[in-house]
Amino acid sequence: MTDALEKEITLSHKFNTGKEIIETIYFGGGTPSLLDKRDIEELLFAIKNNCTVGSSAEITLEANPDDISVEKLNDWKDAGINRLSIGIQSFKEADLKWMNRAHNAEEATACIELAREAGFHNFSVDLIYGTPLLTDDEWHDNVKKIISFGVPHIACYALTVELGTALKKMVGLNKKEDVDPDTQARQFLLLMQWMNDAGYEHYEISNFAKPGFRSRHNSSYWKGDTYIGIGPSAHSYNGIARKWNIANNALYIQSITNNIIPFEEEILTTDQKLNEYVMTALRTIEGIDLAFISDKFSQNEVERISNSANKYIDKGFMIKTGTKLILTDEGKLFADGIAADFFKLD
């Protein structure tokens, strides 16, 4: 697979010719923490050999606690990784078992200490809330533990039971309890309060950071910047179209071997671009910028969205500051529905 990834990097017409500097690289999806030092070095070499990478680029690797060891951390650092995203999810043993996680509570704690000792000072930890077994007090314990470790970036997500998953099947068979939306909403509100009290910036609905530790990579998505995806199922965006590679590993490798990048493409309409901006911007601390909409789309869209926003302002779900529409903490509970209300429909 690594050979195919390197070849796609070389083949890809999506890569620039040195005119645009790449400031973030993200090893994510699947289990990139299984890559060895040589794999990472070769992939980074291929990227740097085909485009210009900034000298201070953020280079992130997703890792599971059970994959983290002193040897691997040192290898990743030596290979060029300077940021980690660690999927801890919970420090509660019962919670981890319920979620079918491979790591245990002891590994969840140890991996943070190991990362720090290896010299990783820029890293993120994922936590999950709203599971049937997680009480408010236990949720508070998880958050307090993260804060006590001084973790610079925290991503928190409500557990979702997706269609077609083993978890959905277990819930349907009454072998596992389903999630409770009211509990999830309450735990999210508590989370925002605790993180604010601890001095974290709630810069995107699911993301909290100490000053200077926002995820530069994810922030580029939310700002609508262009990006390049390499590998099976990888998505790319060039400002005009979205492209995504086929998901099947074997077919992907076969196509790349034959010098073909196997992707599908969708050219975005003006309305789709507006809707995507609304959806992503509303989730951020900066909110929707009506001046940007006026400049990039039309004043008619500004008036339409402003009129729709009035009811949410009246309910206390949103505030208007200058040209910005920003969700309140209560409004963040309804972010998706509010964004949908602002969409331009064909």
How would you describe what is shown here?
The protein has helices spanning 2-11, 37-50, 70-79, 93-98, 105-117, 136-148, 166-172, 181-197, 216-222, 249-257, 270-281, 290-296, 299-314, 335-342; strands at 21-27, 52-63, 83-89, 123-129, 153-158, 201-204, 207-209, 235-237, 241-245, 263-267, 288-289, 318-321, 324-327. The protein has 346 residues and is an alpha/beta fold. It has a seven-stranded mixed beta sheet. It has a three-stranded antiparallel beta sheet with strand order 8-9-10, with no helix packed on it. Strands 11-13-12 form a three-stranded antiparallel beta sheet. Helix 1 crosses helix 10 (249-257) and helix 12 (290-296) packs antiparallel against helix 13. The radius of gyration is 21 Å and the shape is globular. It starts with a helix and ends with a helix. The mean pLDDT is 92.
